[in-house]
Amino acid sequence: MNTKSLIIIGLCAAIPMAAFAGKMNNAEPALQQTEAGDEDNNVITEECLTNVSLFHESAKNKQYADAWEPWSAAYKECPAASVNIYIDGDKIVEWKLSQTKSGTPEYDQYRALLLTLHDKRIKYFGNDPKYKKKYPVAFILGQKGLDYCTFYPEVAVKTEAYPWLKESVTTLGPNSSINVAVKLADVSYEIYKSDPEKYGEQYILDYQLVSGVLATMAADPDNKNAGAAASNKDYVDQRFAASGAADCSKLDELYRPAVQENLDNLELLEKIMNLYRRIGCNNESEVYFAAAEAAHRLSPTSESAAGCASMCKKKEDWTGAIEYYNQATDLSDNEQDKADYQYNAAFVYYNNLKNYSAARAALNRSLEFVPNQGRCYMLMGVMYAASKPYTDGSAKAAILNKTVYWVAVDKFVKAKSVDPTCADDANKLISTYSKYFPTKEERFDLPGEFGGGTFCVGGWIGECTTVR
After folding, report:
1. Which of these, 417, 412, 464, lies nearest to 434 by C-alpha position?
2. Which of 95, 164, 408, 426 is the least crowded, having the fewest Cβ atoms under 10 Å away?
3. What does pTM read for this prediction?
4. What is the mean pLDDT of residues 418-427?
């Protein structure tokens, strides 16, 4: 190091902090001093580096009042000297805003300055290899969008912030800030509400983007913010579902051409299917069925099989529906989904094919995946109560057919014992069917059948119960 440099460093080190602070505090803190001047003459002087060191140390200790003057000087004289001019500057200017009355000219100047900070940071450091990986341009734009939304509350529809937020989330994907992603969904929603006809498609696409990003983050076990991503995804999903943009007919109008033109594009088909399923448009829509059928042909999955099952049900192809539900069960890795698919198959057997024994087999399989499902026992009880296993037409058979109500009530009791949410419905059915139990006189007339404490109901039911 040469002698001149040593002398300069020594002189800088010898400047008393108090004296320097006094000099800065006596300077007029005019707003125009915080606006970068002739950037072509952006010379990084020793004084500039001293100012950077001063404001950075103060900002690190949250002493923003002390940081303001040296930061203002550095920002004006040498805006390319250090990225800390922008990292710390964001906090420093926000502090200044907190000390200024909103609605005043000074407040407006400070919040405009805050946005300009992001633009200058992109200009000087957006492509700097040292910062590009951690703070790429897309990240900075996201922060700019957040600041605009925070400090311009009087702007109801924040169209100015929309492109900044959109570029940030589109570029960063699951590396996005959760706050930026959620804010994009909020801003897109407000734009949509301002003109639903014009911005309906845009809002749907933005919702898909944000919901997908948050879902990926929530599913990543290594993401420390997975829980926050999941809860924010719930918020975004619920708002979309209530927005009116989620109308199934609107979705059909939007996605019918996309499906027809992309029957070999599995990725797109799956995205469309997932959207329909999330908002409950997967049971009636021909567009969803077409996507599911094409996706199932390309690469069978549980979801595509379930979509094909729904299509078969609409066409009243009951056997086809059951076949697809069984395929969905075999293809799924999720126990709850498997249980749902088998319950749906059981309901088709019961309601449409009147095949009670096959329905019970499917319900038992559903219970293997998720035990203690009250709904399964409730449906078994309903089927038992609707059965007449004794068919010879005799008076004895008429009495014996009443025993189905014993086993039906057994299932209703079981349902409410394993699933308290079924209790009200189960109690109503117990009260209804208990009235039809074999009477004391009827049991007396058939001592051979009712002589013991146990009776086994015949036919397809084949279950034993307590005589009562």
Report:
1. 412
2. 95
3. 0.59
4. 96
